[in-house]
Amino acid sequence: MREWWIHVGLICIPLVAVYLHIPPPQLSPALQKWHNAGEVFHFRGRKIFYRDSYGALGSSDIVILLHGFPTSSYDWNKIWEPLTQRFHRVIALDFLGFGFSDKPRPHRYSIFEQASVVEALVSNLGLSNQRVNLVSHDYGDTVALELLYRSDQNRTGHLTFNSLCLSNGGIFPETHYPRLLQTLLKDSSFLAPLLTRLTNYMIFQKGIGEVFGPYTQPTDAEFWDMWTGLRYNDGNLVLDSILQYINQRLKHRERWVGALTSTFVPLHMIYGPLDPVNPHPQFIHVYQQLVQRSTVTILDEHISHYPQLEDPTGFLNAYFNFIHSF
Question: What biological processes does GO assign it (predicted)?
Fold first, then answer.
């Protein structure tokens, strides 16, 4: 009997080892096209991927797009072309640890560092003295709030805001409900290394699918592109480090929520109300109570956590109405 279990173990060990080192999937043609259209710049020795498209003639307006967790700048692909028809320049980046950017490990990822990445990109593009419009989602909302804090405090190298549009970010710890896997990864130093290696496409697809509405689920190809972006440069292995942003939101709530409630920068919130991470009506009630200078668009009741992907037309209409209002 003992010999039988030894034989099973000898067979399983190499199989598990192979499984845990499955190479990342190849880029789809759509994702390859996105990658080919981008460039990289160096931030403290790390490569940061970004896209910078010139658009509308006769406009000097600039919009910068900040993506969410755990995806990438490709989240903006469905609204990219319409934005280039309205803005002179449309810019998006993959944060450090995301998408096509470097994913160092071990590394202490932080919202503060990601804000510095954005400032460095703006400087690299020669836009430090330009007024910029920021559109952010999820994780990007918190990065945007750190940038807003630095701007309002007149910190060296800060962005000059023309406007800020947020969308479905967990900016209030008291109304934010992370998924179970996120909680396990951010709080379990023992389990996290194992869980990041065991996370596979099926687990990822199920988790992402739960934060999309039932009628707005990604296609199989879109799920696969999200997974490919995550696996690029072994991004699954840094998820636990990046997820410390949830703890950072709680620790620095006064700084970031305070910036949001005190700023005079034009603000807007585009919100998918079926979001299980920032549920309706709890989230939007707190937002409207605390951020009284902001306007709000609540999209159709079946739109969830990724409004720019689930309802790109509704998202664009809300955003353009906001931009034209001031």
Answer: acylglycerol catabolic process
